[in-house]
Design brief:
By secondary structure, this protein is mainly α. The protein contains two helices and no strands. Helix 1 runs antiparallel to helix 2. The N and C termini lie far apart (40 Å). Keywords: Membrane, Transmembrane, Transmembrane helix.
Length: 70
């Protein structure tokens, strides 16, 4: 009986941890896409060197959104 109770509590903790991971990933994706859209909207993206602008913007956005998540 106690083993069954422990198993249920362990499953509940795993589900809570998984939910927290999914929430964090969702918030990270939303924050990164919002910041990326701002960067692309206010930069001269079509007229500049596309890959360098996009790469620098992506790295900056990922770092900023990662630190926002902490």
């Amino acid at each position: 009986m106690s083993y069954s109770m422990f198993w249920r509590n362990s499953n509940a903790e795993n589900i809570m941890n998984l939910t927290e991971v999914f929430l964090r990933c969702g918030i990270f994706i939303i924050t990164a896409s919002f910041l990326m859209s701002l960067v692309l909207m206010y930069s001269e993206f079509p007229n500049s060197d596309r890959w360098s602008t996009l790469g620098i913007a992506a790295v900056c956005v990922i770092f900023v959104s990662f630190f926002v998540m902490q």
